[in-house]
Amino acid sequence: ASGAIEPSGGPVELAACDAVEVGAVTRCENFYDDYWPAISEQMDALYETAKQADGGRLVIWDWYELSPDVIAEFNEVYPDLKIETRGLTYNLSSAIISAKATGSRNTDVISGSLVSAATMTDEGYWADVDWTAFGVPKEFFTIGAPEMLPDSVNGSLMQVNTDKVAEAPATLDGLLDPQYEGKVSVASYNANVFAGYGMDKGEEAMTGLIGDLKSSGNLQVLEDQDSPLSSGDVPIALGQTLFNPNPSLSVSPYEDAGVFAQFSGVNVDAKNPAGGMLWSLWNAYNPDWLELRMTDERFSTTQVPFPGLPTSLFDSATGLMQTNSSALLTGLAGGAITETVDTRDDWIAMINAADAALNG
Amino acid sequence: MTHESGGGRLVVDGLEKHYELDGAEVPVVKGVTFTIEPGTFTSLLGPSGCGKTTTLRCVAGLENSNGGEISLDGNVLSTGTRHVSPDKRDIGMVFQNYAIWPHMTVFANAVFPLQVAAGKLPKKEARKRAMEALELVQLDAYAHRPATALSGGQQQRLALARALAHRPKLLLLDEPLSNLDAKLRDTMRNELRSLQQRLGITALYVTHDQSEALSMSDRVAVMNQGRIVQEAAPRDLYYQPADRFVADFVGRVNMIPAIVRGRDGDGDALVEAFGARLVTPCPDSFGTGADVTVTFRPESVRWHEAAPDRPNLLPARVVRVEFLGEIVEYEAEILSGQTVVGTIVGRGAPLNSPSLHDPVFIELAPQACRVLAA
Amino acid sequence: MTHESGGGRLVVDGLEKHYELDGAEVPVVKGVTFTIEPGTFTSLLGPSGCGKTTTLRCVAGLENSNGGEISLDGNVLSTGTRHVSPDKRDIGMVFQNYAIWPHMTVFANAVFPLQVAAGKLPKKEARKRAMEALELVQLDAYAHRPATALSGGQQQRLALARALAHRPKLLLLDEPLSNLDAKLRDTMRNELRSLQQRLGITALYVTHDQSEALSMSDRVAVMNQGRIVQEAAPRDLYYQPADRFVADFVGRVNMIPAIVRGRDGDGDALVEAFGARLVTPCPDSFGTGADVTVTFRPESVRWHEAAPDRPNLLPARVVRVEFLGEIVEYEAEILSGQTVVGTIVGRGAPLNSPSLHDPVFIELAPQACRVLAA
Amino acid sequence: MKIATIIAGAVIFLLLAIPLAVQVITAFRGPFLPFGVSTAKWSVENFVTLWSLRDDFWAVLGSTAAFVGGSTVLSLLMAFGLAWVTVRTDAPLRRVISVLVVVPFIIPPIVKAQAYLLMLSPESGVLNQLLRLLPGDLVIDPYSFVTMTFIQALTNVTFPYLMIVPILTSMDGSLEESARVSGASWAKTLRRVTLPMLWPGLLGVAVLTFILGLGSLEVPLLFGQESGKSIFALKLWNLISAGAGELPQYGLAAAWGCVFLVITTIAFVIYLRATRNAERRASISGKGFRPTVMKLGAWKIPVMLAIAVFVMLTAVLPLFALFWSAITPYPIAFSFEALVTQTQFGSFGAVLADPEFWASLGRTLVIAGGSATIACVAATVLAYGIARARRTGWTKAVDLFASSSVAIPAVIAGFAMFLTFMVINPVIPLAGTIVALIIAYSYRVSIAYRAGYSATLQIRMELEEAALVSGASPLEGFRRIVAPLLMPTVFAVWIQMFVLGTNEFTLPAFLATPESRPLSVYMYAMISPRSAQLYQPDQGAAMALIFTLLVFAIGYGLQWGVSLFAIGRAKRRNPIPGVGTAEVVPPADPVAPDTRAVAAQDLEERRQLARR
Ligand SMILES: Nc1ncnc2c1ncn2[C@@H]1O[C@H](COP(=O)(O)OP(=O)(O)OP(=O)(O)O)[C@@H](O)[C@H]1O
Ligand SMILES: Nc1ncnc2c1ncn2[C@@H]1O[C@H](COP(=O)(O)OP(=O)(O)OP(=O)(O)O)[C@@H](O)[C@H]1O
Ligand SMILES: [Mg+2]
Ligand SMILES: [Mg+2]
């Protein structure tokens, strides 16, 4: 229904992409020079529409709650939109479907990876938006679908407390080494750190590995991996996030780690579709915002901006983001396995198999 | 002090009350009828469970009767079907366990009935009357104490003041003294009675203590199993009990089963009890051969070492002698094996009492005996 | 039945007990000394709060005394510092509120002391003895009921059976009858006393009811404010009270303040009370001019319409007449404004009693008076 | 009066019946939400699925029984011991102990669990560091089933403690004394008389503690990812957290919930039986009642030592772990070196400067206060009506129903409420609002109902009847006599529910949004790495400490204020002209055992008074 939003002044004429392949992703080094001005213009128009829709209210449900700092950054550019946020860890799809079923105000923006948003995709919740008509390079849409705007990637890394462990192994198999007994942790909901291994080596090998890791006592399933990682009690964390300013922590990619592109888009049930588009574009590509994300500790997450953006952006990273993004990009460039529309269901099956092995 | 409650005339006519117990209706009060004249003091006396409290509560309106009529000064308070609610009956009530409101001061307790009354008094007037009621029971000095800081007797007095504060026509009292200890009970008994007389209020008093009923009342109604078995002035009740139940319940009594054998010249009967022959006054309704019970009070029993030449002497053996202070009580076993209780009173009592195991003669003066149906 | 508890000799010597209250030590028992001979029945009589229960609990070992010695048959149970624990004292105790264990049957209650005793009995023997104890109090037929299904009197009997089951040397009783109603109290009093005599057990009985103490005891110790003020046989206590407190507490008494004015030929004193002159026996210790109190019991007061030619006559006016059944009680106001209470007893009582407001003469027979320190 | 009773009854009915009905319906409808989804239809599919998972089911039953049963037994033992020491012995510092026991009750369980986690870390945990100082190679594995059970027991001690104290206080000491003079030693008396006497009451406490344990998610969530994953609460939580590419299995979760409801209902019936028995037994204790105090003598030292260890484990060390976490910039092991070089106190200031802290604190107070008020008012009015009504089948049914929420574990209640608000949202849009939370928290109404019921029974009828014959209408009698007399109980329960409300985590975990979230959830967001950019462990810990202090102050402050007020009221009353004031003498006897129902708070209050 909301596909109705048209680019102001007709579809944008796209420039030619100065392309570099980064693993499965195509990078346009000339993005900010040749694409961004047009996108920016479209965004101004979207802002005007969004202000009128639903009284300027913009509802954003995400897997994580947006921190007030992020909202403040957005409002600095677009002050007249009032953002209402909810973090719905592992329940986002259900909340969106429930809201539609019960008729309550739904989110304007939906987001997730191909896997995590699978239900939303299957139930047809991505509004039919042609992002290329708003100036986004068509090279960005190689992994997902046209209505899904790629905004970032994340993937599985190993975090290491270097006080306790000099260096993390480069493979998951390496974790079987007796020296890591009781030293590796994973969260119960993070079975996907093994899925890449499974996609490469087969399900049996993967479940075997998980079984071995657990039975050897090397791997522990923990709800809170961060405290023991930081204090050194469990010095290696798989798939753990990186918010911890402890200088002893470092991060490294490992072989067969999956990398997952993250998308955002507009909910078919949105009350403020223009606002949804505006948010998605701003969050994914706005250079000032991304620069801040790469440098300001307050905004560091495991997610790294979409690798399709110019190298210069990634070069500007400092601190935690620098470690994190270089590890991820190294992994991606080194052939990390990435999920695509075609392989989505295999991934889902693989993750569930890993989940069963880990938690069953 | 100007406290004129004045009394009302209470008429209870054919009162019936059932309770539901395990699905069945159990009658508890069965056609109780009595009248209390204005300003008099009537006691309901009876053993535990006979329905005294239930009757009183029906009069108060705390229970709805199932039949019969209750009226006060001609105003019908209750029929089997319509009931005036308790707050509109113009009565005062004193409960067995004081029922003093523990969260209030003495004064607040006393002034409460004046504050909630339908035709509300001005604050000042209410305050004045409450203080009057407290003065009446000599609690005015304690007005500002928390009510719980009173002793048992004081609490009972406060309950009385509270019941009188709104100058009701009828005062109901349910065993108000039974929770007090002996000395205090005596004092309160006197206080209560003189207060009632002073105010001229009509009082209905429930008790199972015969000496309380006898000493305080103008009239006593003896209840048994939901019925009134005798209603009379205290002395009549004591000396002319209507039946064995009353005789036994009101004061202590010796009872000997006997058979009427004939009459002597004075119209007194000759009865045979365990072989012995006794002379005793006897209503004409008992003919020769009738099974009767001869009753006599312990205080009218006399004992002798040797038999004097008088009628009604029973040889006996003393089996118990008990010194109770004012009274010495003894028990003597007559030939039939039954025992007779006698008391000796006064300064000389210990000297005049028999010794344990002594053979004695027990004298029952004919005029002290009373013959009742067996 | 073969139940030979037998009694022990209890010696309490200089018992002291303090309680801590708001940080301060409050003495409650202050040097109590008494001896109970084997097989006798002694009562501790005194007003509420005088320390009776505390004394008893010290004997039982439920409180640790702060001084003095307690011994039973020569075994020291307690000194101010060392205390034998209650379970090793060989005593039985009956509590005021029965303290029947509600989660057990009647039998289980009775057999408990036999099961927990140090030298454990064989099961059969314990069972036999428990049943004997229950028989003793006529509860054998109820052995398998839950203890809660007993009436008040039965519970009290069970408490007694339990206290006797292990055949202790000493039986302690703390107001065991005060929760029972009047009729039941009389019955239980007789039962208790005859049982104690039958078993020959030593008994220490705590009560604030003088008639209980007088009727049951071989000896009575009157306590006041933590001290024993008089210890004597019941009759001596009643007729020769040591002081005003005892006279007043044990039985009812009239007290008139007076001044000794001289002696007559018999050695009796002439005292002056409110202008009137009375003749009364008087200990020599009171010299002329001493302030004294003349005491006499209500039952020794006699009244006359006209003054006979006898000493000790006081003109008075009757202010109260109360019919109590067995007794008629009257109150007469003498010239001083003080009132004297008199009682009249027996069948003729109502006829022999004065009428309200009548002027009368009150006679106090000299031998009925007793002079005590003012 | 009658109308008020009916309204109160209706409120309680709505609070309890609708969520349960929604849950049962959900269990019998398709896999997702009960209404509005095209695939939903009536079926027993969820139960079939449940049956197909029966191995899993038995594992859950076994594991839950071991965990909840074990922790219940442990916490009862500890609570009984503590209550015994504070009520029935002459142990020194009893007042202090009874306050310290209450401390863990105030810390939100999720934070408490986190504190235990910090305290128990094998290397860096302060407890394990302490143990390492001792000879022997003692290290506690925080993630073992036994540790988890033990921690659950420790976190739950306060609740049974608060319930056992009045039971012990009100037991007639002469029952034990008569056993002593019958020749039974202390031990025998305890075994043969005291415990059997208290048994029904203790059974009631045990059942309530069990149900409470069944419903609490926190400890299994943090400690049980491996050893405790079959524990019911965590299982339910995982079922409604969707797997990869799937929707949460609400229907299946509801079916699970239904099965466990059957189990708790059985426990609940046991509880009702037990308390009824307890009431009957309590009724025979007569006057002359005085609590006996046991002289500890030589036992004083071991007893105090045991208590010291307990207080260390439940109050001192967890609070220290939180404090350490608050003053370090990121989680590090305690060491003196770190103490010197790493500590910073900025987190406290940051918390106090955080507007979201104040906002969620405000919401917490509103939600906890509002729900406690609703529950207490409705429950008291209904309890009064039922306790005073003639016992018929109908009143018995109402009584049973109003008591029933003690049988509903918080997880189930939270989940059922969540479903309910979703279902009614199109008509009454409450989902995610503070009102929804207030309603949800009020589901604990049965606690207040039971207390109000027994408190009403303790108020002798004569007190009301005296008001009636004094000329007061029934409503006036209730207002002026009953209400003030019930006040102490109601207030005690209110405080208890208020504190429960302030640290409630399970319910808002299902129901809250950032706009309506209470502090416990915000705090958890701060200390859980899962919450991405909100993760600030130092501030979370600081917040927990500040919050604990605050609730402690509010709870005790209110009690103190109320007792002051109660004393003051009699004194402040205007003297009546012409009447000298007689000095106030304390009553000679302790004011009857009537007042004893007023739970532990009453005791607390008297202690407050004594301290003044
Ligand atoms: N609410 C009730 N429901 C059922 N039965 C009752 C109720 N109240 C009283 N009864 C029964 O009614 C009978 C009379 O009770 P009532 O209280 O009037 O006796 P009472 O004469 O006052 O006795 P007491 O001297 O013991 O107070 C008793 O058998 C009692 O058990
Ligand atoms: N545990 C206690 N702590 C402090 N004071 C106490 C304690 N027990 C009793 N007292 C006080 O000691 C005094 C004597 O008490 P005790 O119980 O011995 O009196 P009593 O003679 O048995 O009285 P009663 O006839 O009322 O039972 C009373 O003033 C009482 O208040
Ligand atoms: Mg009665
Ligand atoms: Mg006593």
TrEMBL record, chains B, C:
Residue ranges constituting the ABC transporter domain according to the UniProt record: 10-250
InterPro entries (alphabetical): AAA+_ATPase, ABC_transporter-like_ATP-bd, ABC_transporter-like_CS, ABC_transpr_MalK/UgpC-like, Mo/tungstate-bd_C_term_dom, P-loop_NTPase, Transp-assoc_OB_typ2
PROSITE patterns registered for this protein in UniProt: ABC_TRANSPORTER_1 (PS00211), ABC_TRANSPORTER_2 (PS50893)
Swiss-Prot/TrEMBL keywords: ATP-binding, Cell membrane, Membrane, Nucleotide-binding, Translocase, Transport
Gene Ontology terms: cellular component: ATP-binding cassette (ABC) transporter complex, substrate-binding subunit-containing
UniProt keyword annotation of ATP-binding present: yes
Pfam families registered for this protein in UniProt: ABC_tran (PF00005), TOBE_2 (PF08402)
Gene Ontology MF terms in the entry: ABC-type transporter activity; ATP binding; ATP hydrolysis activity
UniProt-recorded name of the protein: ABC transporter domain-containing protein
Species the sequence originates in: Agromyces aureus
Taxonomic lineage: Bacteria, Bacillati, Actinomycetota, Actinomycetes, Micrococcales
From TrEMBL, chain D:
Residue ranges of coiled coil: none
Species in which this protein is naturally found: Agromyces aureus
Topology in the lipid bilayer: Multi-pass membrane protein
Protein name: ABC transmembrane type-1 domain-containing protein
Keyword 4Fe-4S part of the UniProt annotation: no
Family membership: Belongs to the binding-protein-dependent transport system permease family.
GO cellular component assignments: plasma membrane
GO biological process, one term: transmembrane transport
TM segment ranges: 57-85, 97-122, 142-164, 197-217, 253-272, 303-327, 365-386, 398-421, 427-443, 481-501, 541-567
Keyword terms of this UniProt record: Cell inner membrane, Cell membrane, Membrane, Transmembrane, Transmembrane helix, Transport
Superkingdom assignment: Bacteria
Predominant cellular place of this UniProt entry's protein: membrane
Residue ranges occupied by any ABC transmembrane type-1 domain in the UniProt entry: 61-271, 361-558
Cell compartments where the protein resides: Cell inner membrane; Cell membrane
InterPro entries: MetI-like, MetI-like_sf
